[in-house]
Amino acid sequence: MNTIPVAEVKSATRSYRSGARLVRALRGVSLTIGAGEIAALAGPSGSGKSTLLHLIGCLDRPDSGEVRLGDLRVSHMRAGALAAVRRDRLGFIFQSFNLVPVLTARENVEYPLLLTRIGRSERRSRVDDLLDSVGLHSKADRRPHELSGGERQRVAIARALVNQPSLVLADEPTANLDSVTGAAVLDVMEDLRDRRGVAFLFASHDPRVIERMDRVTRLHDGIIVNDPQLEAAACA
Length: 236
What we know:
Layout: E1 7-18, E2 21-33, E3 38-42, H1 49-56, E4 64-69, E5 72-73, H2 79-89, E6 90-94, H3 105-110, H4 120-133, H5 149-161, E7 167-171, H6 179-196, E8 199-203, H7 207-210, E9 215-220, E10 223-226, H8 228-235
Parallel strand pairs: 3-8, 3-9, 6-7, 7-8
Antiparallel strand pairs: 1-2, 1-4, 4-5, 9-10
Helix pairs in contact: 4-5, 5-6
C-alpha cells in the first residue's frame, strides 16, 4: 500500500508586499493530503487559504519551507519542470469555470490532452468516459453558453480529471452556484473520488462545502488554527 501523501507542505512561509505594507500570508504552515481524501482549507478572506492552494498547485513558491507532490520536491524545481508537474499530477477547478467559449464541452475536456503525446483514439476514450461520469455525455457537443452553471462546472471537473491527476485543487468551486446545483456538483466529486481514488483539496468558506469534507483545516492570519489530522497525531 502506497503511504506517500499526494501533497505535503512543511513549515511554509510566504510574504508579499501590498503597497508599502508587508503581508505575511503564510507563517510556518504544515499540511498533508492523503490519497483519495476530500479536504478543505477554510477561513475568512486574507487567512492564507488561497496562497496555500497556490503553493500546492505549483503556481507560487514558498519563501521558506518545503512543498512536495508525491515523491517530488516541487518547491525547489525550475519553472519548466513545474509546468510538466502541473500537467501530469494536478487538476484545477475554478469558481468561474474558465471554459473556452468557442469550444464544445467535449473539446474543452480534451484540450489539456492536446499538450501531451496521447493519441486521438485514447483522447476520445478518456473524454467520453469522463463526460459520462459527470452525466453530460448527451451534451458533449454543446458550447458553454448552451449549458447551465452546474453543467459548466461539471465540464470543468471532467477537464480537471482528464490527465488522470492524483490531486485536484478547487478554489471556491460552488461560489457561483445555487445550493441545489452546488450540492449536485459536490456529489459528482465525491463519486469520482470513490471510483477513481482522486484526492480533492478545496479552498472555501462556504458552509455547504465544509460540512461535506473528510477533513477541514482552518486558517487565520496565515496560521493553521485547527487541523483534525494534527490534533489526532498529538493525542496518539
